[in-house]
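Lab notebook page, bench 4
Experiment: in silico fold of construct C2
Operator: M.H.
Input chain length: 415 residues
Purpose: comparison with the prior construct
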Amino acid sequence: MTFDEMSYQPLGDKKHSAFFEEYRQKIYERRKSSGLSELLGGMRAVVVQVEHGDGVSYLCELYLMGPYRLTAAFESETHRIFLLTSKPDFPRLIVMEPLASDYRDEITLLNSLYPLAAAKPNARYVGEIFAAADQLEVQRILESHSIRFHYHHETKNPLITDSAFVFSFPSDYTGNRIGYCQVDLDELGALGLGKPIHLSAEVLSQLEGVDEFSRQQQLDPLVLGLDHMATRVLAGEREDAILEFLTMSNYYFWGAYNIADMNSSTNVNRNANVEDDKQSPAKVFTANNTPSFVNSFEDLPMPTEEFVRNFGRRMHHLAYEVCDGDHAGGEKNVDYVVNTLKDKGVAFLAHVVGECLDEPNLKQIFSKHSAYSILITEYVERCHGYEGFFTKSNVAALTAAAGQDEQYRHGRVFD
């Protein structure tokens, strides 16, 4: 049965403004009437940038903590670019590493505004790339909807303007970009990522060592792929961030839930055109229910807003789904994965939250922020066919744990 986004009633208990409900429907209608819906496919890649010198270390971290493996490496005028793959129909991962330690562009300037982002001024989740039947037509349509795109020489990084992709400006609400590409990402020569390069025998040996550990510990078949990704935004910009993403994608607004204990809400958007979310992962936006200057009257927890104040509007975490089941000894697969990674030195923010007994439920955990990308890695195991992305108690516990790790002391303000 064809999914009807117009008649779909979003799930959850988060109340939305009349503005949000009106324009959500108008956006769906315009996507269809403009032809955008027919032009767009699923998410084909996610893009992350790290600091100069952190590229190989981040690849090793990715090998250890997830299913991504290196497919090819390139060198442009400004960056080394690594293309990683998990399963063929899951999004690729593109890692960019500046060639020079003094590299500066708009990402550097954006990160420099926030105290806990400035330490790694080039490290940032950049955005997603969607399949497009005709990327220039997608650009033309979206520019008629007031979406800005980068043109040649408007940024130093040639991947943004001179590759097979077209990219939007960073969002004013999230700091993320969205790219579009009509080229098959397996056609490496057509991607325009730069000159192909071969990594040294030492680097390849490092990666092989981590890969071998993953195989020996049977992590490979358990950590499946990207399940969802969560961006944190300011309280007053939650609806705008969601509507902007709906404008630029073929996703629909699945639902939103209040997390009262953390004074926040979790807002989920999904792609109805895939059978498995890992083929085009869900996009989640989290925000405080009250902005900091008003919350000072109420004195409620506000770890989500504190993250934005300290790191900026940006991607907070990428979540991998763990295969549901019991490992040897009776522990759940997610517990085994986490304990194995802990033994290897991976730091986590808290224990695994949630229970998997006789009813559908899910277990989740956050790692600490990556030293290279600043991203948190989440692991989630859905038990007995659980269909959602969270439970309120799980999210409250995870948000609280992350909040303790994301604080910044400034004068008499400690958040």
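Observations: The longest strand covers residues 223-233. The chain has a mean pLDDT of 92.
Next step: discuss at group meeting.
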